[in-house]
Amino acid sequence: MTPLYTTTALATGDGRNGHARTDDGTLDLELRIPKSMGGAGGATNPEQLFAAGYAACFHSALKLVAGRAKADATGTEVSATVSIGRREDGGFGLAAALAVRMPNVDRATAEELVAKAHQVCPYSNATRGNIEVALSVF
Fold first, then answer.
1. Contact status, residue 108 vs residue 114, Cβ threshold 8 Å
2. When you count CB atoms within 10 A of the terminal residue's CB, does the N or C end of the chain come out lower?
3. Gap between the Cα atoms of 30 and 13, Å rounded
4. 29-43 per-position pLDDT tens digit
């Protein structure tokens, strides 16, 4: 791979109950374990950050493949839902679900474009074979 962009983030404090910031300072935030996992909540967490990044990255991939196909990507939306849980073999794992709205193309075309975007998106390529990723069109 030839890098087009590289960034660095630093996590300090107590991991999920700590602080994270990027080297350029554009991201600078507190982290807290969600209440549903026994934490205090009240701040973002790694799963929310991953969901936001995946949704944005997949949306860009979708717009790219839609443009190549001359499909109208106006008004498209991508929602990423990320779950964390215990794995049967120990440790923790993630799962993701991407829900895509493409109001200006028929469902079959939207599903085809979503499948193509899943092959292009760097997050999809990084997670493929590592976590379950469900795709849906609504």
1. no
2. N
3. 10
4. 999 999 999 999 999
